[in-house]
Amino acid sequence: MNKSKFGFHFVLPAVVFTISLVVFILTACRTIAWWDCPRYVLASAELGIPPPPGSLLLTVIGWAVAKIPIVQPIAFRLNLLAGLFAAITAAIIVWLTIRLFLEPNGNLAVWIGAVVAGLSLAFSLTMWNYAVQLTPYILTTVFTGLILWALLLWWEQASSSGSWRWLFLTFLLFGLDFSVHRTNSLLLPGALVWIGLRNLGTYRSLRTWACIFGGLAAGLALHFVLILMAARGPFLNFGDPSTLRGFWHYVSLQQYGGGFLFDIFHRKAGFFNVQVMQYLRIFAANFAVASNWWVTLLPVLFGLFGCVRHFIKDRRQALGLLALFLMASLGGIIYYNVPENYIRPVDRHYMPSLVIFSLWIGHGVVTLLSLAGRLGKRSSIIATVSAACLVMSVPVGMALHNWKSVDLSRSFFAGDFARNMLVGLPRDAILFTNGDNDTFPLWCLQKVEKVRPDVDVININVLNTGWYLRQMARNYPGVPLDMTGDQCDRLAPALIRDTTLVLPLPDTDRRERRAVQFTLADTSGKYVWKANSQAIYRIIRNNRWQRPICFAITLDFRDIAFVIPYLRFEGLHHQLMPQQDPPMDTAVVKMNMTEVAQYRGLNDRGVKLYGDSRMMSGNYAIVLMLLAQEQRKRGAKESCHETVRFIEAQMPPDRLGMPGEFKAQLDSLRM
Predict the structure, then answer these.
(1) Per-residue DSSP letters for 240-267?
(2) How far is residue 550's CA from residue 423's CA, in Å, rounded to a whole number?
(3) Could you tell me if 377 and 236 lie in one domain?
(4) Which of 67, 416, 427, 460 is the most exposed place for a label (fewest CB within 10 A)?
């Protein structure tokens, strides 16, 4: 049968694309989300360099989209781009299902099976979750689909003289995808197995190897664009890959240990009982869905049935697809070597395996409907209609079940936290932050939405790297680091004895005590003064109390414990003061937390409160609790009760998952 004559070959992908895109638009995040989203919104907006391994292709495409003056804010516009990528992936799956599993006289079955495959992938938990926020992982799925598409076209034309073009395209896609994320690189051995299963003699041709290495080299060459981008000196320029040395350190992940993080022999957790089970839980969360009225393993059963039928229909092709699936799943488990209780979701690493499995879901549906159609004429109609209703209920059930969990259309938690932290700071403040979720959202709001550009936000975790110190001096000329480029590169931890650092007080201070004393000590009698701590002290010393210096409450203060005695609590930050144990300014805290800050959605139980949102928002409740306790301590009983009522109204403790002792303290403050 001539597959090119199949009428719905391109119509059905367009239909699934449209349905998926509409759903993704409705559920897309209107602002930034946690983790990767703000860093790629920022990188896209200014064509910057996000932390390694980065995603060059996503950044370049995002930069082009950010320039289109439609849909505000820019973060929302870029989140819609993620939905576009996801919808394209779903459409590719429809096309592949039709192309792979078209059966004689089975057009209706194929149509339905292809739609079910595409929509089941689109509405799976992981796919949908990354379709509503800009991250590299959703573009990875597009490349998974394109690689499968190129491999299939090569398979169909392997005997023709022009098949080398599809082979070259396949490995060009692998090379290009390396600049998106490195997940699809795991498919390379599977692709080689696929080629060998179709025609082992292909490997005896020099043209084959030229296509493989030439395609990879051409795709990987795109990475050199990083050098040109970094040489522009953008605000976000992690690792500064503007030189060949810096470029190699960036792409090889030198900052995180180097060697492209290839560490598979020393397992960071139990392989079977932790890592394999972790993958199986992710797989089940996507294709074994459950809700109050819908409990089903149908997607898994269809997929397994489709895999078996694929082996019966075309053993070699099925074995090739299985090799690709195993590399994306088992290969991912081995390579990523994720430790137990990792701080971030790792489902993103296994998305290619979900894409591949959805093809078998489609084949299982096609086979079921084809079998129903072979019954007697009257029975066939009844069986086909019943089976069609059953299989179409799969993506419908997945959509209904997952909607609330992935809907970010009313989730403003990350953007609000960043805004609340910025707006509460004194004018021209220098703010030290800790990690991803208390740094990138702030940078993103400052540079993209122009919120509090007077504040200089410095991340202490990368303050011990020469490239960041140099970059900070360029980005923040008002920060008095006072170090040359060579000094930045040479800054290193120092082992010192117990030491007291004396810092003069401001000239306006008329008290008898004329200095602040920072003590560096530990129980061993020696002190490891880390490079970032040294940089912080230099900034404090050189600042001479000219600009407010603040520390986010999210910081781990163990490495900078010397500043703790001089910090005044002001809400979501502490301010360094020229006196020891400065009392809380309750008026400032109250203004920052009850008048300036906003808490959209925290008291709306119709909005899903994810783990990161719950954890970060818990800071609000803790800060307000401290305010209430201080008000009570000072005898302002009514103000204390007012703060307690504010907590309960704006951020119900049970919704934030606050511990029982927090609720007990809240109850005691009501008395």
Answers:
(1) -TTSHHHHHHHHTTGGGTSGGG---SS-
(2) 13
(3) yes
(4) 427
Q: In the structure, what pLDDT confidence band is assigned to residue 545 with cuts at 50, 70 and 90?
A: very high
- Regarding whether 336 and 257 lie in a shared domain, the answer is yes
Collect all residues with Cβ–Cβ distance below 8 Å to 140 and sequence separation of at least 6. Answer: 177, 180, 181, 183, 184, 348, 351, 352
The answer to whether the predicted template modeling score (pTM) of the entire model surpasses 0.90 is: yes
Residue-range definition of the domain harbouring residue 532: 413-582
Q: Are residues 505 and 650 in the same domain?
A: no
Cα 568 from Cα 634, distance rounded (Å): 17
pLDDT band at 5; cut points 50, 70, 90: very low
Give residue 501's Cα distance to chain centre. Answer: 41
Q: Which residues contact 611 (CB under 8 A, 6 or more apart)?
A: none
Last residue of a domain, one of 406, 441, 464: 406
Q: What's the CA gap between 362 and 354, in Å, rounded?
A: 13
Last residue of a domain, one of 406, 424, 452: 406
Cβ pair 61, 115 in contact under 8 A: no
Joined together, the tokens standing for residue 274 give 């932790």
Three-state DSSP class for residue 432: strand
Please state, rounded to an integer, the average pLDDT across all residues of the chain. 92
Is it true that the peptide bond before 53 is cis, omega within 30 degrees of 0?
yes
For residue 73, whether the previous peptide bond is cis, meaning omega lies within 30 degrees of 0, is yes
Assign 234 to helix, strand or coil: coil
